[in-house]
Every structure is written in C-alpha cells, then in structure tokens.
Amino acid sequence: MTGWKTMALVVAAWLILVAIGCGASEGTTTSATSATTAPQTAATADEYDVYSALIQSVYIDATQLKQIVISTVNADQNVNFDLAAGAIKSFWPELGDDILGDFKAKNKMSSALERTFTLSVPYTLITEQELASIFSITASGWDKFYAKYPDSKGFLTLSRVGFNRAKDTAVLYTEHQSGATAGEGDVVLMKKTDGRWTVEDNSMFWQS
Fold first, then answer.
1. Cα–Cα distance between 191 and 199 in angstroms, integer?
2. Which of 8, 99, 132, 208 could in theory staple to 22 by disulfide, Cβ–Cβ 3.0 to 4.6 A?
3. Which of 91, 35, 43, 40 is nearest to 71 (CA)?
C-alpha cells in the first residue's frame, strides 16, 4: 500500500487510537457539508437495505456469526469523514462528486439507528450509554461485553450511506471492534443490480 492509501491508513489510525483507544466511540463530528446536499437526520429505507446486505454478506454469511451487535449511533463522531471521503475517492476514483457529497453531508451529524435491519440472525442495537457503562473500566470492559453478548465477536458501527443520483451505487464507512487491540475501519463500495445490493469492494481504512 503506497501513497494516499498509506497516509490515510496512518492518519486515520492515529485519529482513532487517540480518540477511542480502540474502545467505544464518542466525540464530535468534524465533517464539512456538501454545498448541494442537505444533511439528513435519520437513515432511510434505502440505507437499511444497504446495511442489511453488507452485514448479511460480510459478517454473517462469511463468518457464520450467530448474533450481531450494532451501535445505535451510526456516525462514529471521532472519524474525520472528509478524510474517509478522500480514501473512498482514492480507492475508487471513478466515483462522481454526487456520491461523495451525499456521503459527507449525511455524516455531518450522527443519528440513531432503529430496528429496521433484515438479517438472518438475531441482532441487538447497543446504545452509547450502554457502551460507556461497559467500557467505563478499560481493563474489564471486553470481559463484560462478551459476558453479555457471547456470540457476537464484538460490535459494529456504521456510517450513513452515500448514494449516487441513480441510487445504484453506495459508499459507507464501517468500524468493527472486537477487543482492546482488535479493531478495524473499512470503506465499502456497494452496487445494486436487479434490485439487489452486493459488496463490490471492501477496503481497510485503519487497523489496531
């Protein structure tokens, strides 16, 4: 990995490690708003279709997970979404400004996710308050987490989804944390064909 991808990985990892130490996510968003796309405060049905397809493919079918734990706040406010958008552009330079503008505008503010996922296994939405309570004592936080969610292999954080104008291409940022030194952030490209979303590419953005 060279050039922008290396820089993005190093800088993003530094931002994450300083802000959360690979633990629960808190903070304030620093993203800029697109000049032409107004920010939204709630995920749409189209976004839940993307979320569900991604989770089913990458986290359930691929790993045979029996339970999914998802953070209710879908914008990790410690992430610089302008930097994430830059990584998306670097990985997939063919994407237009419409999809990147939509991604950045939506992720200007966080919004709570709801139980609108379509998945083949049980899932739990975990709140910021519960995460803060579990990880209030760093040394035993993950022991407490897995005592409550033994089949989960950690928890997942999802950004808002950016779409192109045709609504057949989508990008998002995901974060999966499963231990004190086991976390990674990815930028994901998804395509819709014959009414079905599939993962086109999933590129690591940072790892700890």
1. 7
2. 208
3. 43
What is this structure's pTM?
0.78
Looking at the chain, the whole-number percentage of residues with pLDDT higher than 70 is 78
pLDDT digits (tens, 9 = 90+) for 157-186: 999 999 999 999 999 999 999 998 898 889
11 close to 205: Cβ distance less than 8 angstroms: no
- Ordered by start, the domain boundaries in the chain are 3-25+43-207
Provide CB contacts within 8 A for 172, sequence distance 6+: 50, 51, 54, 103, 158, 159, 160, 161, 162, 187, 188, 190
Amino acid at residue number 152: S
Quote the CA–CA distance of 45 and 51 in Å, as a whole number.
10
List pLDDT tens digits, range 13-46.
Answer: 433 333 333 333 333 233 333 333 444 478 999 9
Q: How far apart are CA 50 and CA 118, in angstroms?
A: 10
Q: Higher-confidence residue: 142 or 79?
A: 142
Locate 41 and state its tokens.
């405060």
